[in-house]
């Protein structure tokens, strides 16, 4: 067959082959690029999850160090300072949560979110306490949101 083809026909076949090879190479490049982007997104998501987890652990470590220092003082003879220490301890226990501090939580916080919300809505309670409980609820929400994001990132 090649013996009967002239130079123009051979040139057309070579050009057609080159086009087929170029189209194939383009398709392969698109597939590789898509897989590379998917992998890069996965790596970025893992990096974000790890960073968020690390930040959460660092926050909890700092809160636990402050709580430990607070609890090791053993109270104070001045009732105002003693109340401040108790308030700080309660806030730190809330920030760390009942999973890591179950006994402290049971002693210091020990209320469900619905009980806390009922307290916030109770007009007979002092305003400053209701505002503090509202802040406590917000702290719990933020902590829960962070933990859910870390967990969701681990599943992805």
Report the portion of residues in β strands.
under 5%
| Proportion in helices | over 70%
The structure class reads: mainly alpha
What is the rounded Rg?
A: 32 Å
Using the alpha-carbon principal axes, give the shape.
rod-shaped
Following the backbone from N to C, one meets helices and strands in this order, namely HHHHH
How would you name the oligomeric state of the polypeptide chains in this document?
Answer: single chain
Largest sheet: none
- E-strand count: 0
Written account of the structure:
- The chain is rod-shaped.
- The chain contains five helices and no strands.
- It has one domain (about 1-155).
- It is mainly α and about 160 residues long.
- About 5% of the residues are buried.
- Helix 1 runs antiparallel to helix 5 (about 125-155) and helix 4 runs antiparallel to helix 5.
Describe the secondary-structure layout:
Layout: H1 7-72, H2 79-96, H3 102-108, H4 113-121, H5 127-155
Helix pairs in contact: 1-2, 1-5, 2-5, 4-5
């Amino acid at each position: 067959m090649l013996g009967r083809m002239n130079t123009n026909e051979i040139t057309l076949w070579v050009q057609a082959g080159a086009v087929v090879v170029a189209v194939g190479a383009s398709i392969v490049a698109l597939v590789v690029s898509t897989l590379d982007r998917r992998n890069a997104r996965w790596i970025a998501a893992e990096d974000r999850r790890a960073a968020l987890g690390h930040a959460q652990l660092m926050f909890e470590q700092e809160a636990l160090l402050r709580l430990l220092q607070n609890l090791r003082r053993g109270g104070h003879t001045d009732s105002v300072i003693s109340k401040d220490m108790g308030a700080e301890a309660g806030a730190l226990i809330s920030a760390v949560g009942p999973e890591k501090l179950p006994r402290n939580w049971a002693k210091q916080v020990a209320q469900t979110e619905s009980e806390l919300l009922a307290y916030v809505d109770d007009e007979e309670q002092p305003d400053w306490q209701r505002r503090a409980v509202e802040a406590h609820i917000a702290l719990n929400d933020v902590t829960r949101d962070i933990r859910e994001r870390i967990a969701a990132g681990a599943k992805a």
